[in-house]
Design brief:
By secondary structure, the protein is an alpha/beta fold. Helices cover about 45% and strands about 15% of the residues. It has an eight-stranded parallel beta barrel with strand order 1-2-3-4-5-6-7-8, surrounded by six helices. α8 links the parallel β7 and β8. α3 packs parallel to α5.
């Protein structure tokens, strides 16, 4: 059992070099992480490094402020996919949201979603800058925009993810979209707390290693998912064995 399939291993530091991105990709392959998340200028490099591996490539769009023109976000997203991105992490226009210009927020999201087709779209709502009601409203708009994930944070504001925010998001969206918790998650135990609160993916620039005892692990959502998958495999194997040759 592993937490690796929950991890988007992230490097978005503006001073990151090509060598840093290469190291990020090598580590992600070694540890079996779900994806790497990098700035759009490094998508081609990351895609090349991860070719023939199971690790996906995730590109940021409109990062980190989200206040550029929608057409710019669309262009950046399309170029990222052309360069090999498997997923897009787009920053919401917080200025529009704060102005209660909800139609503009929705258009910003839907234009990018339409441009990228079936490519998974995560929309970063920047929870540290929003009230509870604004978090709920942002989530509702994201659902209207048919996003695949709602992501908590860029990691470039005063704080990152919080368990309270993840719980608010989960209560609002239920199972209509997934949640990516990002920002300030640096160890295995903290990552597990977010998964148990409702997160389906963890964005982190830290190497997450298992440090929790097995008794505590059995009470977590990741353990339950592991058991469910194991049981599904057993059922599948039995079905295959029972088929006549």
């Amino acid at each position: 059992m592993t937490i690796s399939n929950y991890i988007d291993y992230t490097l978005l530091n503006p001073t990151a070099t090509s060598r840093d991105i290469i190291q990020l990709c090598e580590t992600a392959k070694e540890l079996g992480y779900y994806s790497v998340c990098v700035s759009s200028c490094y998508i081609a490099l990351a895609s090349q490094m991860l070719e023939n591996s199971q690790v996906k490539v995730c590109s940021t769009v409109g990062f980190p402020l989200g206040t550029m023109a929608t057409a710019s976000k669309v262009c950046e997203a399309e170029k990222a996919i052309e360069d090999g991105a498997d997923e897009i992490d787009m920053v919401i226009n917080i200025s529009f949201l704060k102005s209660q210009n909800y139609m503009a927020v929705l258009k910003d999201i839907t234009d990018v979603k339409l441009a990228i087709g079936n490519t998974p779209l995560k929309v970063i709502i920047e929870v540290s800058e929003l009230s509870k009601n604004e978090i709920i409203k942002a989530c509702e708009i994201c659902l209207d925009g048919k996003v695949d994930f709602i992501k908590t944070s860029t990691g470039f504001t005063k704080s990152g993810a919080t368990l309270t925010a993840v719980k608010i998001i989960k209560k609002t969206i239920k199972n209509r979209a997934k949640i990516k918790a990002s920002g300030g998650i640096r160890d295995f135990e903290t990552a597990l707390k977010y998964i148990d609160a409702g997160a389906d993916r963890i964005g982190t620039s830290s190497i997450i290693e298992a440090t929790i005892d097995s008794v505590s692990l059995r009470n977590t959502k990741i353990y339950k998912h592991y058991i469910e998958k194991a049981n599904e495999t057993k059922v599948s194997d039995k079905t295959t064995e029972s088929k006549p040759v």
